[in-house]
Amino acid sequence: MENTGKLAGYTLFVTGGSRGIGKSIALKAARDGANIVIAAKTAEPHPKLPGTIYTAAKEIEDVGGKCLPCIVDVRDEKSVQAAVDEAVRTFGGIDILVNNASAISLTGTLATTMKKYDLMNNVNTRGTFLCSRACLPHLLKSKRRNRQPHILNISPPISSITSKWFKTFPAYSIAKYGMSLCVLGMAAEFEEQGIAVNALWPRTTVATAATEMLGGSSSAAHSRKTDIMADAAYAVFLKGISCSGNFLIDDEVLAKEGITDLDQYACVPGNQLSLDIFVNNNGSFEPQENTSKKHNASRDQPSRNGNPEVSAIFNEMRKALSASVVAQIGGVVKYTLSASGKSESWTVDLKNGSGSIRQEDGKADCTLKMSPNTFVAMFKGEMDPTDAFMSGKIKIEGDMGLVMKLEKLTQNIPKSKL
Protein backbone atom coordinates (compact mmCIF):
# COMPACT_ATOMS: atom_id res chain seq x y z
CA MET A 1 0.00 0.00 0.00
CA GLU A 2 1.40 3.35 -1.04
CA ASN A 3 2.04 6.06 1.54
CA THR A 4 -0.10 9.19 1.25
CA GLY A 5 1.66 11.61 3.60
CA LYS A 6 -1.54 12.03 5.62
CA LEU A 7 0.14 11.05 8.88
CA ALA A 8 2.85 13.71 8.54
CA GLY A 9 3.24 15.47 11.87
CA TYR A 10 1.15 12.89 13.74
CA THR A 11 2.67 11.29 16.83
CA LEU A 12 2.33 7.53 17.33
CA PHE A 13 2.99 5.85 20.68
CA VAL A 14 3.87 2.22 19.86
CA THR A 15 4.33 -0.33 22.63
CA GLY A 16 6.63 -3.27 21.93
CA GLY A 17 7.91 -1.38 18.91
CA SER A 18 11.55 -2.44 18.93
CA ARG A 19 10.89 -5.36 16.55
CA GLY A 20 8.24 -7.30 14.68
CA ILE A 21 4.76 -5.97 13.92
CA GLY A 22 5.12 -2.92 16.16
CA LYS A 23 8.28 -1.76 14.43
CA SER A 24 6.79 -2.38 11.01
CA ILE A 25 3.73 -0.23 11.82
CA ALA A 26 6.05 2.48 13.13
CA LEU A 27 8.16 2.43 9.95
CA LYS A 28 5.06 2.68 7.75
CA ALA A 29 3.88 5.81 9.58
CA ALA A 30 7.42 7.24 9.64
CA ARG A 31 7.51 7.17 5.84
CA ASP A 32 4.67 9.70 5.98
CA GLY A 33 6.82 11.92 8.21
CA ALA A 34 5.18 10.91 11.49
CA ASN A 35 6.77 11.18 14.92
CA ILE A 36 7.22 7.81 16.59
CA VAL A 37 7.56 6.95 20.26
CA ILE A 38 9.05 3.47 20.63
CA ALA A 39 7.93 2.26 24.05
CA ALA A 40 9.64 -1.06 24.74
CA LYS A 41 11.89 -2.83 27.24
CA THR A 42 14.81 -3.81 25.02
CA ALA A 43 17.56 -1.24 25.49
CA GLU A 44 20.48 -3.69 25.27
CA PRO A 45 20.90 -6.33 22.54
CA HIS A 46 19.13 -9.59 23.37
CA PRO A 47 21.07 -12.83 22.80
CA LYS A 48 18.17 -14.44 20.91
CA LEU A 49 15.97 -11.57 19.71
CA PRO A 50 17.02 -8.92 17.17
CA GLY A 51 16.72 -5.18 17.71
CA THR A 52 16.59 -2.61 20.49
CA ILE A 53 14.66 0.62 20.91
CA TYR A 54 17.75 2.44 19.60
CA THR A 55 18.24 0.35 16.46
CA ALA A 56 14.51 0.74 15.75
CA ALA A 57 14.82 4.51 16.23
CA LYS A 58 17.63 4.70 13.68
CA GLU A 59 15.57 2.76 11.12
CA ILE A 60 12.64 5.10 11.69
CA GLU A 61 14.78 8.20 11.24
CA ASP A 62 16.40 6.71 8.14
CA VAL A 63 13.01 6.55 6.37
CA GLY A 64 12.05 10.13 7.24
CA GLY A 65 10.41 9.99 10.64
CA LYS A 66 11.38 11.42 14.01
CA CYS A 67 11.74 9.00 16.88
CA LEU A 68 11.82 9.07 20.66
CA PRO A 69 13.02 5.72 22.06
CA CYS A 70 11.73 5.13 25.60
CA ILE A 71 12.55 2.26 27.95
CA VAL A 72 9.07 1.20 29.06
CA ASP A 73 7.64 -1.70 31.02
CA VAL A 74 3.90 -1.58 30.25
CA ARG A 75 3.21 -3.31 33.58
CA ASP A 76 4.61 -0.31 35.47
CA GLU A 77 2.31 2.72 35.72
CA LYS A 78 5.16 5.13 36.51
CA SER A 79 7.20 3.86 33.56
CA VAL A 80 4.29 4.31 31.15
CA GLN A 81 3.34 7.74 32.46
CA ALA A 82 6.93 8.96 32.27
CA ALA A 83 7.14 7.90 28.60
CA VAL A 84 3.81 9.55 27.78
CA ASP A 85 4.93 12.79 29.48
CA GLU A 86 8.24 12.75 27.61
CA ALA A 87 6.44 12.14 24.32
CA VAL A 88 4.20 15.14 24.89
CA ARG A 89 7.16 17.35 25.84
CA THR A 90 9.08 16.22 22.76
CA PHE A 91 6.36 16.21 20.09
CA GLY A 92 3.57 18.31 21.58
CA GLY A 93 1.02 15.53 21.94
CA ILE A 94 -0.04 11.99 21.04
CA ASP A 95 -2.43 11.18 18.19
CA ILE A 96 -2.31 7.40 17.82
CA LEU A 97 -1.66 4.62 20.32
CA VAL A 98 -0.71 1.14 19.10
CA ASN A 99 -1.05 -1.46 21.85
CA ASN A 100 1.27 -4.08 20.41
CA ALA A 101 3.29 -5.25 23.44
CA SER A 102 2.45 -8.85 24.28
CA ALA A 103 3.67 -11.83 26.31
CA ILE A 104 2.93 -15.38 25.21
CA SER A 105 3.04 -18.89 26.62
CA LEU A 106 0.96 -21.46 24.73
CA THR A 107 0.48 -23.79 27.66
CA GLY A 108 -2.45 -25.55 29.32
CA THR A 109 -3.74 -24.86 32.80
CA LEU A 110 -1.47 -27.26 34.70
CA ALA A 111 1.60 -26.28 32.69
CA THR A 112 1.09 -22.55 33.26
CA THR A 113 2.73 -21.21 36.39
CA MET A 114 1.09 -18.28 38.12
CA LYS A 115 4.21 -16.27 37.30
CA LYS A 116 3.54 -16.88 33.60
CA TYR A 117 -0.17 -16.18 34.05
CA ASP A 118 0.53 -12.87 35.76
CA LEU A 119 3.11 -11.89 33.12
CA MET A 120 0.70 -12.46 30.22
CA ASN A 121 -2.26 -10.75 31.84
CA ASN A 122 -0.22 -7.85 33.19
CA VAL A 123 1.46 -7.17 29.83
CA ASN A 124 -1.45 -7.92 27.50
CA THR A 125 -4.71 -6.91 29.17
CA ARG A 126 -3.54 -4.64 32.00
CA GLY A 127 -0.77 -3.08 29.90
CA THR A 128 -3.27 -2.26 27.15
CA PHE A 129 -5.68 -0.68 29.62
CA LEU A 130 -2.88 1.23 31.35
CA CYS A 131 -1.36 2.65 28.16
CA SER A 132 -4.79 3.57 26.82
CA ARG A 133 -5.69 5.34 30.07
CA ALA A 134 -2.39 7.27 30.05
CA CYS A 135 -2.70 8.35 26.41
CA LEU A 136 -6.42 9.15 26.31
CA PRO A 137 -6.18 12.72 27.70
CA HIS A 138 -3.81 13.52 24.85
CA LEU A 139 -5.93 11.73 22.26
CA LEU A 140 -8.85 13.91 23.36
CA LYS A 141 -6.68 16.99 22.80
CA SER A 142 -5.70 15.60 19.40
CA LYS A 143 -9.37 15.52 18.41
CA ARG A 144 -9.76 19.14 19.50
CA ARG A 145 -6.91 19.92 17.08
CA ASN A 146 -9.07 18.39 14.31
CA ARG A 147 -6.91 15.30 13.96
CA GLN A 148 -7.96 11.65 13.75
CA PRO A 149 -7.02 10.12 17.14
CA HIS A 150 -6.91 6.35 17.27
CA ILE A 151 -6.22 3.39 19.54
CA LEU A 152 -5.29 0.19 17.72
CA ASN A 153 -4.88 -3.04 19.67
CA ILE A 154 -3.09 -6.00 18.09
CA SER A 155 -5.62 -8.52 19.36
CA PRO A 156 -8.07 -11.13 18.03
CA PRO A 157 -11.71 -10.79 16.96
CA ILE A 158 -14.10 -11.52 19.82
CA SER A 159 -16.33 -13.36 17.35
CA SER A 160 -13.70 -16.11 17.36
CA ILE A 161 -14.10 -16.86 21.08
CA THR A 162 -14.51 -20.61 21.38
CA SER A 163 -13.47 -23.38 23.75
CA LYS A 164 -11.03 -24.57 21.08
CA TRP A 165 -8.57 -21.84 22.05
CA PHE A 166 -9.29 -21.76 25.77
CA LYS A 167 -8.87 -25.51 26.23
CA THR A 168 -5.49 -25.43 24.49
CA PHE A 169 -3.88 -22.32 26.00
CA PRO A 170 -6.38 -20.77 28.44
CA ALA A 171 -4.13 -18.22 30.15
CA TYR A 172 -2.88 -16.71 26.89
CA SER A 173 -6.41 -16.70 25.46
CA ILE A 174 -7.70 -14.82 28.51
CA ALA A 175 -4.90 -12.27 28.18
CA LYS A 176 -5.30 -11.66 24.42
CA TYR A 177 -9.09 -11.50 24.45
CA GLY A 178 -8.79 -9.08 27.35
CA MET A 179 -7.12 -6.68 24.91
CA SER A 180 -10.07 -7.14 22.56
CA LEU A 181 -12.55 -6.46 25.35
CA CYS A 182 -10.77 -3.13 25.86
CA VAL A 183 -11.68 -2.34 22.25
CA LEU A 184 -15.30 -3.33 22.80
CA GLY A 185 -15.62 -1.03 25.80
CA MET A 186 -13.47 1.95 24.84
CA ALA A 187 -14.86 2.23 21.30
CA ALA A 188 -18.33 2.76 22.75
CA GLU A 189 -17.10 4.89 25.65
CA PHE A 190 -15.22 7.39 23.48
CA GLU A 191 -17.30 7.32 20.30
CA GLU A 192 -18.94 10.68 20.98
CA GLN A 193 -15.54 12.27 21.69
CA GLY A 194 -14.36 11.18 18.24
CA ILE A 195 -11.66 8.67 19.25
CA ALA A 196 -11.55 5.55 17.07
CA VAL A 197 -10.71 2.27 18.79
CA ASN A 198 -10.13 -0.94 16.81
CA ALA A 199 -8.48 -4.35 16.97
CA LEU A 200 -6.34 -5.79 14.17
CA TRP A 201 -5.24 -9.41 13.84
CA PRO A 202 -3.36 -11.37 11.14
CA ARG A 203 -5.12 -14.12 9.21
CA THR A 204 -1.91 -16.12 8.91
CA THR A 205 1.19 -16.38 11.03
CA VAL A 206 3.52 -13.43 10.59
CA ALA A 207 7.29 -13.85 10.44
CA THR A 208 8.51 -12.42 13.75
CA ALA A 209 11.02 -13.55 16.34
CA ALA A 210 8.14 -14.79 18.51
CA THR A 211 6.72 -16.89 15.66
CA GLU A 212 10.12 -18.46 15.05
CA MET A 213 10.52 -19.27 18.73
CA LEU A 214 7.14 -21.01 18.74
CA GLY A 215 7.16 -22.59 15.30
CA GLY A 216 10.84 -23.17 14.61
CA SER A 217 13.14 -21.69 12.01
CA SER A 218 11.10 -23.09 9.13
CA SER A 219 7.92 -21.27 10.20
CA ALA A 220 8.83 -18.10 8.28
CA ALA A 221 8.60 -20.00 4.99
CA HIS A 222 4.88 -20.48 5.68
CA SER A 223 4.20 -16.99 7.05
CA ARG A 224 3.59 -13.49 5.76
CA LYS A 225 5.85 -10.50 6.32
CA THR A 226 5.07 -7.94 8.99
CA ASP A 227 4.40 -5.50 6.14
CA ILE A 228 0.87 -6.84 5.76
CA MET A 229 -0.04 -5.75 9.30
CA ALA A 230 1.69 -2.40 8.79
CA ASP A 231 -0.25 -1.68 5.59
CA ALA A 232 -3.53 -2.76 7.17
CA ALA A 233 -2.92 -0.61 10.25
CA TYR A 234 -2.06 2.37 8.04
CA ALA A 235 -5.32 1.96 6.10
CA VAL A 236 -7.29 1.84 9.37
CA PHE A 237 -5.60 4.99 10.74
CA LEU A 238 -6.63 6.97 7.65
CA LYS A 239 -10.33 6.16 8.15
CA GLY A 240 -10.59 7.97 11.47
CA ILE A 241 -13.79 7.76 13.54
CA SER A 242 -15.73 6.35 10.57
CA CYS A 243 -14.00 3.06 11.42
CA SER A 244 -14.32 2.27 15.11
CA GLY A 245 -15.33 -0.64 17.31
CA ASN A 246 -14.21 -3.17 14.72
CA PHE A 247 -12.28 -6.44 15.00
CA LEU A 248 -10.35 -6.49 11.77
CA ILE A 249 -8.34 -9.10 9.87
CA ASP A 250 -5.33 -7.77 7.95
CA ASP A 251 -6.05 -9.08 4.45
CA GLU A 252 -9.75 -8.18 4.71
CA VAL A 253 -8.77 -4.57 5.41
CA LEU A 254 -6.47 -4.56 2.38
CA ALA A 255 -9.09 -6.15 0.14
CA LYS A 256 -11.37 -3.19 0.85
CA GLU A 257 -8.52 -0.94 -0.25
CA GLY A 258 -8.35 -2.83 -3.55
CA ILE A 259 -5.23 -4.79 -2.67
CA THR A 260 -5.80 -8.39 -3.72
CA ASP A 261 -2.25 -9.44 -4.68
CA LEU A 262 -1.22 -10.93 -1.35
CA ASP A 263 1.81 -12.79 -2.73
CA GLN A 264 3.77 -9.59 -2.18
CA TYR A 265 3.40 -10.18 1.57
CA ALA A 266 4.40 -13.86 1.57
CA CYS A 267 7.88 -14.66 2.84
CA VAL A 268 8.01 -17.38 0.19
CA PRO A 269 5.42 -16.69 -2.54
CA GLY A 270 3.51 -19.81 -3.51
CA ASN A 271 4.07 -21.66 -0.23
CA GLN A 272 1.10 -22.88 1.76
CA LEU A 273 0.52 -20.44 4.63
CA SER A 274 0.08 -21.37 8.28
CA LEU A 275 -3.11 -19.97 9.76
CA ASP A 276 -2.91 -17.91 12.92
CA ILE A 277 -4.62 -18.75 16.18
CA PHE A 278 -7.92 -17.09 17.17
CA VAL A 279 -9.18 -17.01 13.57
CA ASN A 280 -12.37 -18.94 12.80
CA ASN A 281 -14.36 -19.42 9.63
CA ASN A 282 -16.89 -16.58 9.87
CA GLY A 283 -15.13 -14.73 7.08
CA SER A 284 -11.87 -16.00 8.49
CA PHE A 285 -10.05 -19.30 8.79
CA GLU A 286 -10.70 -22.52 10.64
CA PRO A 287 -7.37 -24.38 10.78
CA GLN A 288 -7.56 -27.40 8.51
CA GLU A 289 -5.33 -30.34 7.72
CA ASN A 290 -3.77 -30.47 4.28
CA THR A 291 -6.03 -32.94 2.46
CA SER A 292 -3.91 -33.18 -0.67
CA LYS A 293 -2.98 -36.66 0.54
CA LYS A 294 -5.56 -39.00 2.04
CA HIS A 295 -5.04 -40.04 5.63
CA ASN A 296 -5.52 -43.69 6.52
CA ALA A 297 -8.06 -43.98 9.33
CA SER A 298 -6.23 -47.05 10.61
CA ARG A 299 -3.47 -44.75 11.88
CA ASP A 300 -5.78 -43.77 14.73
CA GLN A 301 -5.92 -47.40 15.89
CA PRO A 302 -2.53 -48.21 17.47
CA SER A 303 -2.03 -51.96 17.66
CA ARG A 304 -0.82 -53.70 20.79
CA ASN A 305 2.71 -53.63 19.41
CA GLY A 306 2.40 -50.05 18.13
CA ASN A 307 1.30 -48.54 14.82
CA PRO A 308 3.64 -49.73 12.00
CA GLU A 309 3.93 -46.25 10.47
CA VAL A 310 4.71 -44.76 13.86
CA SER A 311 7.40 -47.38 14.39
CA ALA A 312 8.87 -46.63 10.95
CA ILE A 313 9.17 -42.93 11.78
CA PHE A 314 10.96 -43.61 15.06
CA ASN A 315 13.27 -46.04 13.27
CA GLU A 316 14.25 -43.26 10.86
CA MET A 317 14.73 -40.90 13.80
CA ARG A 318 17.13 -43.39 15.37
CA LYS A 319 19.31 -43.23 12.26
CA ALA A 320 19.62 -39.47 12.72
CA LEU A 321 20.82 -39.71 16.33
CA SER A 322 24.38 -38.68 17.13
CA ALA A 323 26.43 -37.16 19.93
CA SER A 324 26.39 -33.81 18.13
CA VAL A 325 22.58 -33.82 17.94
CA VAL A 326 22.41 -34.64 21.66
CA ALA A 327 24.83 -31.76 22.39
CA GLN A 328 22.61 -29.36 20.43
CA ILE A 329 19.25 -30.45 21.92
CA GLY A 330 20.08 -31.59 25.46
CA GLY A 331 16.70 -32.88 26.61
CA VAL A 332 14.32 -35.82 26.81
CA VAL A 333 11.09 -35.66 24.81
CA LYS A 334 8.17 -38.06 25.13
CA TYR A 335 5.52 -38.62 22.47
CA THR A 336 2.20 -39.90 23.82
CA LEU A 337 -0.02 -41.06 20.95
CA SER A 338 -3.65 -41.75 21.83
CA ALA A 339 -6.84 -42.64 19.95
CA SER A 340 -10.03 -44.60 20.66
CA GLY A 341 -9.05 -45.21 24.27
CA LYS A 342 -5.66 -46.72 23.37
CA SER A 343 -2.31 -45.13 23.97
CA GLU A 344 1.40 -45.69 23.34
CA SER A 345 4.41 -43.68 24.48
CA TRP A 346 7.86 -43.20 22.94
CA THR A 347 10.70 -41.59 24.87
CA VAL A 348 13.37 -39.82 22.83
CA ASP A 349 16.49 -39.28 24.95
CA LEU A 350 18.52 -36.45 23.45
CA LYS A 351 20.38 -35.69 26.66
CA ASN A 352 22.63 -38.68 27.27
CA GLY A 353 25.40 -40.31 25.20
CA SER A 354 24.56 -40.52 21.51
CA GLY A 355 20.83 -40.49 22.18
CA SER A 356 18.23 -43.26 22.25
CA ILE A 357 14.60 -43.91 21.38
CA ARG A 358 12.50 -46.42 23.31
CA GLN A 359 8.84 -47.35 23.26
CA GLU A 360 8.23 -46.67 26.93
CA ASP A 361 6.47 -44.22 29.23
CA GLY A 362 9.66 -42.69 30.62
CA LYS A 363 10.43 -39.44 32.40
CA ALA A 364 10.78 -36.45 30.07
CA ASP A 365 11.52 -32.74 30.05
CA CYS A 366 8.76 -32.23 27.49
CA THR A 367 5.73 -34.31 26.47
CA LEU A 368 3.88 -34.02 23.15
CA LYS A 369 0.38 -35.50 23.10
CA MET A 370 -1.44 -36.21 19.84
CA SER A 371 -3.15 -38.94 17.85
CA PRO A 372 -1.11 -41.39 15.75
CA ASN A 373 -2.87 -39.87 12.73
CA THR A 374 -1.55 -36.42 13.53
CA PHE A 375 1.93 -37.75 14.30
CA VAL A 376 2.27 -39.62 11.01
CA ALA A 377 0.74 -36.82 8.92
CA MET A 378 3.07 -34.28 10.50
CA PHE A 379 6.23 -36.28 9.85
CA LYS A 380 5.15 -37.08 6.30
CA GLY A 381 4.71 -33.37 5.59
CA GLU A 382 0.94 -33.67 5.16
CA MET A 383 0.16 -31.47 8.16
CA ASP A 384 1.87 -28.28 9.28
CA PRO A 385 3.10 -28.67 12.90
CA THR A 386 2.24 -25.06 13.76
CA ASP A 387 -1.32 -25.46 12.47
CA ALA A 388 -1.65 -28.75 14.35
CA PHE A 389 -0.54 -27.14 17.61
CA MET A 390 -2.61 -24.01 17.24
CA SER A 391 -5.76 -25.98 16.41
CA GLY A 392 -5.32 -28.21 19.45
CA LYS A 393 -4.28 -31.38 17.63
CA ILE A 394 -0.98 -31.32 19.53
CA LYS A 395 -0.67 -30.56 23.24
CA ILE A 396 2.70 -29.72 24.74
CA GLU A 397 3.61 -30.08 28.41
CA GLY A 398 6.96 -28.95 29.79
CA ASP A 399 9.86 -27.25 28.04
CA MET A 400 8.51 -25.94 24.73
CA GLY A 401 12.00 -24.83 23.73
CA LEU A 402 12.93 -28.49 23.27
CA VAL A 403 10.25 -28.84 20.60
CA MET A 404 11.91 -26.09 18.61
CA LYS A 405 15.27 -27.80 18.91
CA LEU A 406 13.80 -31.11 17.76
CA GLU A 407 13.57 -29.58 14.31
CA LYS A 408 17.31 -30.25 13.98
CA LEU A 409 16.61 -33.96 14.26
CA THR A 410 13.37 -34.26 12.29
CA GLN A 411 14.71 -32.27 9.34
CA ASN A 412 17.19 -35.09 8.75
CA ILE A 413 14.45 -37.69 8.25
CA PRO A 414 13.91 -38.38 4.51
CA LYS A 415 10.17 -38.17 3.80
CA SER A 416 10.50 -40.68 0.97
CA LYS A 417 11.27 -43.44 3.49
CA LEU A 418 8.15 -42.86 5.59
Total of DSSP H or I helical runs spanning 4+ residues: 14
**Stretches with pLDDT under 50, minimum 5 residues:** 281-305
Note the beta-strand portion: 15-25%
Sequence of secondary-structure elements: EHEHEHEHEHHEHHEHHHEEEEHHEH
Strand order of the largest sheet: 3-2-1-4-5-6-7
Shape: elongated
What is the alpha-carbon Rg in Å? 23 Å
Give the % helix.
25-40%
**SS-based class:** alpha/beta
**Overall number of strands:** 12
Major sheet attributes: 7 strands, parallel
Mean pLDDT: 87
How would you describe the overall organization of this protein?
By secondary structure, this protein is an alpha/beta fold. Helices cover 39% and strands 16% of the residues. The protein contains 14 helices and twelve strands. It has helices spanning 20-30, 53-62, 77-91, 114-144, 163-168, 170-189, 209-215, 227-239, 250-256, 308-319, 323-329, 372-379, 385-390, 400-410, and strands spanning 11-15, 35-40, 66-71, 96-99, 150-154, 196-201, 247-249, 331-339, 342-350, 356-358, 366-370, 395-398. Strands 3-2-1-4-5-6-7 form a seven-stranded parallel β-sheet, sandwiched between helices. 47% of the residues are buried.
What's the layout of helices and strands?
Blueprint: E1 11-15, H1 20-30, E2 35-40, H2 53-62, E3 66-71, H3 77-91, E4 96-99, H4 114-144, E5 150-154, H5 163-168, H6 170-189, E6 196-201, H7 209-215, H8 227-239, E7 247-249, H9 250-256, H10 308-319, H11 323-329, E8 331-339, E9 342-350, E10 356-358, E11 366-370, H12 372-379, H13 385-390, E12 395-398, H14 400-410
Parallel strand pairs: 1-2, 1-4, 2-3, 4-5, 5-6, 6-7, 8-11
Antiparallel strand pairs: 8-9, 9-10, 11-12
Helix pairs in contact: 1-2, 1-8, 3-4, 4-6, 8-9
